[in-house]
UniProtKB/TrEMBL annotation:
Coiled coil: none annotated. One of its GO terms (molecular function) is translation initiation factor activity. This is Density-regulated protein. Pfam families: DENR_N, SUI1.
Length: 205
């Protein structure tokens, strides 16, 4: 039984080598038939790794492949060099395939999005809050690159009331201070003149 196992194992190794080294199978037009293969020396000598105890062709599948390579480099330098060359060719082939896919699919090409031109305009409006109270809504300050949190804090201090950022470009001030903003905003931020402030009147939120 042990002899049969060895023979079967040797056949597996031969097939593996033939698949990995196509030159041993001829020009590829010949039918694969049982029997001696050209370029193969018989009896086939199987070299085993002293680290993982497997044939050296299978070391790459061992979890501690680096230790196997160190052992091969010390004890079988010629075989180690052959395996390294085969590995480099396989990696080069994979690299070429990746490049082709990137060219076909355009992967990795990032186009910068153009920043949309947003008109610089500040809008102020009044909105009801409850039955008798109201709030003042300010939008558009970000078009002048003004920090909304800083602006909200400024309004809260200036009018001694609550003021907070409630949207992407919106500040809500507690109370009706809409008319005062036409003077306060240009005074605080000179880049904003009165013509850049639009009164939207009363708006529902």
């Amino acid at each position: 039984i042990s002899i049969c196992v060895v023979i079967v194992y040797d056949l597996v190794v031969i097939v593996h080598r033939c698949l990995r080294f196509p030159a041993a199978m001829g020009d590829g037009n010949e039918n694969f038939a049982p029997g001696p293969l050209p370029g193969v020396t018989y009896p086939v000598q199987v070299l085993y790794c002293g680290n993982c105890s497997m044939p050296i062709e299978y070391c790459e599948y061992y979890p501690e492949y680096e230790k196997c390579k160190q052992w091969l480099e010390r004890n079988l330098p010629e075989e180690f060099e052959k395996l390294m060359k085969i590995g480099e060719k396989e990696e080069d082939g994979i690299g070429e395939e990746e490049k082709k896919r990137q060219k076909r699919g355009g992967k990795g090409i990032m186009k910068a999005k153009k920043k949309e031109d947003v008109p610089k305009q500040v809008c102020v409006s009044r909105a009801p809050r409850g039955k008798k109270k109201s709030v003042t809504v300010v939008t558009g300050l970000s078009t002048f690159d003004i920090d909304l949190k800083v602006a909200a804090k400024f309004f809260g201090t200036k009018f001694a009331c609550g003021s907070s950022v409630t949207g992407e470009d919106e500040i809500v001030i507690q109370g009706d201070v809409k008319d005062d903003l036409f003077d306060i905003i240009p005074e605080k931020w000179p880049e904003i003149d009165e013509d850049s402030i639009e009164d939207l009147g009363d708006q529902k939120r």
